[in-house]
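Format is chain and fold; as here:
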Amino acid sequence: MSGKHAKPNVHLSQVSEMVKRLFRLTLSEIHSLPSYDDQNFYVASTEGGEYVLKIMNSEDSKNLGLIEVQTYAMSYLHQNGLPAQTAVPSSSGQLMSLEEMDCGYGCQKYLVRLLTYLPGTTISKVPLTPQLLYETGKTAARMDKILEKMEHPHLNMLQREKFIWSLSNVALLEAYIHVLDGDPLQEVVKSVIHHHKTSLDPKRSNFRKCVNHGDFNDLNVLVQPDETDGYRISGILDFGDMNSGYYIHELAITIMYMMTVHPNPIEVGGPVLAGWESVLPLSEVERDCLYLLVLSRFCQSLVLARYSVTLHPENAEYLMISSKKGVSILHQVWELGKEQVERLWFQSAAQFSDRN
């Protein structure tokens, strides 16, 4: 999460000048795209190319090594057959440029990258059929398997020990839980954090390690129609939450976000799990922790969104996208309980795998 004055506020005229100066492109079209912490623009050049200009917030822009690893990871996935964006070199051959600008809070430095534009619509806008959920789980698992093999001199930058969005750091939510004062949701969140600390943290040493994308959500997965009247995944966006984590974390994050855009959220877990296990079968301890990890991600999303709105009230609509349905889903999953939810997910996954 960026601080109060870290998010850039660059005007369209500045974007046009920047693209022309850095990449020698003249723009024929430009419009802003939604973003949590950064500023994103769709840009089309008179030469015929389509791109996304990404201007990082001033806090993340200080960590050049981390952004370098994220940029490399996108290219690495693309080279290994997954549809990730790649960075376009500037006219001087650089994949990123640190630009000093005044966005109303004094001069600050913002990291700028021009990324390839991936066609498609976000998965949040299409029917989440069991088959598409299966493909989503399968793609998430393939992504983490590929990232595990990645080598880079700054790979240790992904050891983000106090990263608030890591599922290893759910206890850090306690510093923000005051934003739920007076809300019945606070007691559920406190209970989830307690169970995470007492029953899940001691088991983490048994999880299989990997590199996590960390934000495989309904706005970061693009789809396009396929030849069977369904949809196929056509893009993976936003690598800003990459961290050294565990396979089971990625699966829990994927299930949680797909639940927020499904008419019957509890039905999501089975097909996503089946797709994931077609690539990476879970161990017994990983299966035992999945329910609590999904709940934990709901808590992270709800608490941190509420906190971010206090910093950026002007961006409340985007920040609260997952929260609108997330509160009722969290209550539902919590009240059903571990045993019943696991039975639904694991039986559904087994039946789906048999069909496939």
Summary: Strands lie at 27-33, 39-45, 50-55, 97-102, 107-116, 121-122, 209-212, 221-225, 231-236, 243-246. The chain has a mean pLDDT of 92.
